[in-house]
């Protein structure tokens, strides 16, 4: 493996360009310290003065002192290799994916850099001493940790890793070093639910406020589990019992500042048939990317939108794609939106045949299932939530593009951020996101 951090691009007229650094060069060290990855490069070059050593594409080594004075070097490093996950979790979603999806979906990562930069969850199952020192030195905080249980024997069984580290010990060390954590527990009925879940949460309470929040998430199961450990979904009764238990713990422990400690994913309320709680239950919405509080934000966003006193008449209505889990809330929103805008907007709830009918969130819909749901409808305009697309905004899970949906339906396709304000912009600003 070649050493150093490879330069992907260099900003025009930047310090790096004036020093002769070019794309393809490798940054070897900063003030004598090896630059192993983009975090090293970022933190070591944040000093007021440093000496950079790099190798060009021909292998010639060069060295220069820099004093950026807040301007930065102007280097964009390549991301580098992702540290792969060596666990074989009984509930791993990647193991349950069907064939034929885009390749990046099959990558299992266990990379603290991605946890720090993008909020991805890591298990700390084989965290090395070097990684721990880097976390503490660079203050990589907050980090997101998959806990699942504090019973080490049970956790090793769930992770499929007999050598997984003592999770409480790892978290305690990081917290003592000033690192803030957010946790998640994926609940598998009959394994780490009920009394075991309550024991785990009580064992985690002393870690507050360093462990700021813990998201409790029901296990996600697809139709592609052949050869995998037998698991079943959370039942309505179990969901209700879990919500009641979380409420008891919340009442007894209070909050760390304004942040509720143990928070349930929206899916728990949908499974239990219970009302979505108010904003206070979610604090700063720190676990929003984990499906905790999305519906509350959607409901509040709709309420704020409908406080507008003046509404222009919308030009034409449309069909709005949604997953099955959010259909009632989307339907209620669209009914009021239609009334105020003077145009008709209808939801089309899409059954997920790609993953299996038990997967009901909008973000995991495939393009072919959307086309199938629209096949029998006369549609002239389709509103497609951007959450169904990868970050680049070009393809759905099954490599179908929004353009393919437009071609297959003969309809105009408008992308929108899956929020009330995002939908409003897509309706009233037709120059945005039209395909």
Structure overview:
This protein has 435 residues and is α/β, with parallel strands linked by helices. The chain folds into 3 domains: 5-77, Roll (Pdz3 Domain); 94-291, Alpha-Beta Horseshoe (pyruvate-formate lyase- activating enzyme); 301-428, Rossmann fold, CATH 3.40.50. It is built from 14 helices and 14 strands. The strands form 3 sheets. Strands 1, 2, 3, 4, 5 and 6 form a 6-stranded antiparallel sheet that branches. Helix 7 packs parallel to helix 8, helix 8 crosses helix 9 and helix 12 (367-374) packs parallel to helix 13. It is globular. The mean pLDDT is 93.
Shape estimate: globular
Order of helices and strands: EHEEHEEEHHEHHEHEHEHHEHEHEHEH
What is the average of the pLDDT values?
93
Instruction: Give helix % range.
Output: 25-40%
Radius of gyration: 24 Å
Could you tell me how far the N terminus lies from the C terminus, measured between alpha carbons in angstroms?
Answer: 43 Å
Q: How many domains comprise the coordinates?
A: 3
CATH superfamily of the largest domain: pyruvate-formate lyase- activating enzyme
Poorly predicted residue ranges: none
What is the count of DSSP helices, taking H or I runs of 4+ residues?
A: 14
Q: Give the CATH topology of the largest domain.
A: pyruvate-formate lyase- activating enzyme
Major sheet: 6 strands, antiparallel
Determine the structural class based on helices, strands and strand pairing. Answer: alpha/beta
CATH classification class of the largest domain: Alpha Beta
Q: Strand percentage, roughly?
A: 15-25%
Number of strands: 14
What CATH architecture of the largest domain would you give? Alpha-Beta Horseshoe
């Amino acid at each position: 493996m070649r050493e150093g951090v490879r330069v992907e691009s260099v900003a025009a007229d930047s310090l790096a360009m004036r020093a002769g650094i070019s794309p393809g060069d490798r940054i070897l060290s900063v003030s004598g310290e090896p630059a192993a990855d983009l975090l090293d490069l970022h933190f070591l070059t944040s000093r007021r003065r440093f000496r950079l050593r790099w190798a060009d594409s021909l292998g010639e080594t060069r060295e220069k002192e820099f004093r950026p004075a807040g301007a930065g070097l102007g280097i964009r490093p390549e991301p580098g290799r992702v540290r792969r996950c060596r666990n074989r979790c009984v509930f791993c979603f990647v193991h349950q994916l069907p064939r034929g999806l885009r390749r990046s979906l099959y990558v299992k990562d266990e990379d603290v850099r991605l946890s720090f930069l993008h909020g991805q969850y890591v298990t700390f199952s084989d965290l090395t001493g070097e990684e721990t020192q880097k976390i503490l030195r660079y203050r990589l905080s907050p980090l997101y940790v998959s806990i699942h249980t504090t019973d080490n024997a049970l956790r090793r069984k769930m992770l499929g890793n007999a050598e997984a580290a003592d999770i409480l010990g790892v978290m305690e060390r990081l917290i003592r070093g000033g690192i803030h954590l957010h946790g998640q527990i994926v609940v598998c009925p009959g394994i780490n639910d009920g009394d075991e879940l309550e024991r785990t949460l009580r064992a985690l309470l002393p870690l507050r406020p360093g462990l700021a929040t813990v998201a409790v998430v029901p296990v996600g199961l697809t139709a592609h589990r052949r050869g995998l450990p037998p698991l079943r979904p959370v039942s309505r009764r179990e969901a209700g019992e879990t919500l009641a238990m979380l409420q008891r713990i919340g009442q007894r422990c209070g909050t760390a500042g304004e942040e509720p400690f143990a928070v349930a994913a929206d899916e728990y309320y949908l499974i239990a048939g219970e009302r979505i709680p108010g904003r206070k239950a979610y604090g700063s919405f720190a676990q929003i990317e984990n499906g905790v509080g999305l519906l509350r934000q959607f409901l509040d966003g709709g309420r704020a939108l409908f406080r507008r006193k003046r509404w222009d008449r919308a030009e034409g209505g449309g069909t709005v794609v949604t997953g099955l889990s959010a259909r009632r809330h989307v339907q209620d929103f669209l009914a009021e939106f239609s009334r105020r805008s003077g145009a008709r907007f209808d939801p089309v709830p899409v059954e997920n045949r790609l993953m299996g009918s038990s997967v009901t969130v909008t973000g995991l819909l495939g393009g072919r299932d959307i086309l199938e749901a629209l096949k029998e409808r006369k549609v002239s305009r389709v509103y497609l939530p951007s959450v169904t697309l990868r970050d680049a905004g070009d393809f759905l899970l099954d490599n179908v593009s929004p353009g393919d949906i437009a071609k297959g339906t003969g309809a105009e396709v408008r992308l929108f951020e899956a929020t009330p304000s995002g939908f409003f912009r897509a309706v009233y600003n037709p120059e945005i996101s039209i395909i």
